[in-house]
Amino acid sequence: MLLHFALMSGQEVAVEALPEDIVDDVLNRAQDALNVVLVSMISSSGALLNLTRSLEDEGVQDGDRLIVVVDKSDPPQAVAQQQLYLGSPEKGWTAGSLGR
After folding, report:
1. Among 11, 39, 45, 58, which residue has the fewest nearby CB atoms (within 10 Å)?
2. Can you list the domains of the chain with their CATH numbers?
3. Which domain of life is it from (predicted)?
4. In angstroms, rounded to a whole number, what is the distance separating the alpha carbons of residues 34 and 69?
5. DSSP per position, 30-65
C-alpha cells in the first residue's frame, strides 16, 4: 500500500507499507524520508494511531493521507510551524511584528 504523510508545514512524502506493518515502523520510515523527528501519526479521520498495532488493525487503507506530529524539540520544524501559525514573512507577518 502507498501512504501519504503530511506535515503541518505542507511538506509531504509517500511511503510504501504492508497492511501488517506496525505503525511505529512505518512512522520511522516516514521520519527518515521527511528528515524530522516524528512522535505520532493521525489518521485521515482524525484518530491518533496506536504505535504498537498494525496498519490494518488501525484501519489504515491504501492511499490514505496521514498527518504526522513533529517533536517540538526539533528546531527546524518548530520554526516552520511557527511561521504557519503566525503568517508568512513575505507578507510581513512575523513573530517579531506580533510582539512575540
Report:
1. 45
2. 2-71 (3.10.20.90)
3. Eukaryota
4. 12
5. HHHHHTS-EEEEE-TTSPBPPTTSBTTTTT--TT-E
